[in-house]
Amino acid sequence: MKVPNNPFFGTHYIGRKEKKAVDKVIKSKSLFRYQGPNLQYMTDQFEEAMKEYLNVKYVLACSNGGTALKLSCIALGIGIGDEVLVPSFTFIASASNILAVGAVPKFVDIDETMNIDPKSIEQNISERTKAIIVVHMQGSPANMKEIMKIAKKHNLKVIEDTAQALGAELNGKKVGTFGDCGAFSLQAGKTITCGEGGFFVTNNKDLYMRAKMYHDNGGYRVGCSYPTWENTKTFFGENFKITEIQSAIALEQLKKIDKIISFQERKYQYLINRIDTNFYKIRPFVKGANSFKMSLGIVFSTKEECDNFIKYMNNHGIGFNIYCSNLIDKYDTFKFQNSWDKNNFPYSLTKYIPNKCEKAESLFKRVAWFNLSAELKRKHLKYIVSKLEEYKNVRCW
Ligand SMILES: Cc1ncc(COP(=O)(O)O)c(C=O)c1O
Question: Which pTM does this prediction carry?
Answer without folding.
Answer: 0.98
